[in-house]
Design goal:
By secondary structure, the chain is mainly α. The chain is built from 9 helices and no strands. The longest helix is centred in the first third of the chain and has 31 residues.
Length: about 260
Amino acid sequence: MTAFVIQFIGLTISFMQLGIAAAQSFCYYRAFPHDKQLLKCLVATVLILNTIGTLFTSLMFWMFFSGCYKNKSPKCQAWDTEGMILLFVNMTLPFIVQSFYCHRVWIISNKNIYITIPIILFATSSYVIGLVLVPMQKVGAFSNLAILKYSSAGAFQSGLCDFMISLSVYFYLRSGRSGVHRTDNRIQRITKNFMSMGFLACLLAISICIFYWADASVAIAGVAMVLRSSYTNSLLAILNARKLPDRPPTVEIELPTITVHNSR
């Protein structure tokens, strides 16, 4: 599979995910108008970063394949300012979402530091590695194996962070832990969303490491496009899972009056 096909597939999926994220954002603001202003700003920030990332990815996709296709010169392999901004967005958006999840784990675990501190360390270390790589991209994004090595290490730590978050949420919110049967299924839906989206993000992060070991650096860019948008939809899906299910309308039934004659 050529580099053009791999990156085009990743770009197409990221555009589809952007549309899904926009629809989920509309549903969120409509269903939860009384949420805290900070949470609303968080949703808007994540959506804006995802949109910027998708647009810059499209721009770089066009610039690369219009002028540098099959050209391995250092000028084409180096990323310009747009590429550095794109890398910053790709690292910042997952860190924001993981920090939000870490705060939720801190709440449901009754402030258990033995669970939240490793999550914070994995998320922070992955973000710091990404920030260190931003200025290094200008000297050659794909030609320097050390940069790809550090990127894969950051992706692996991010995958561990997602795995710990999903496992912690499942442990504390599983239905059999309290022994009480819940009639409200919102907790179950939130847990399922945490598990499914966390597993997807973890799988994509691990696939970046696999592509690095397989010496398929071009495929890493395609997976990174999907991974960024997956974090956005993960956050929105979990927030929207709090919505109460639509209940069928009540039907009023008028019973006839029965007259009872008491005869002696």
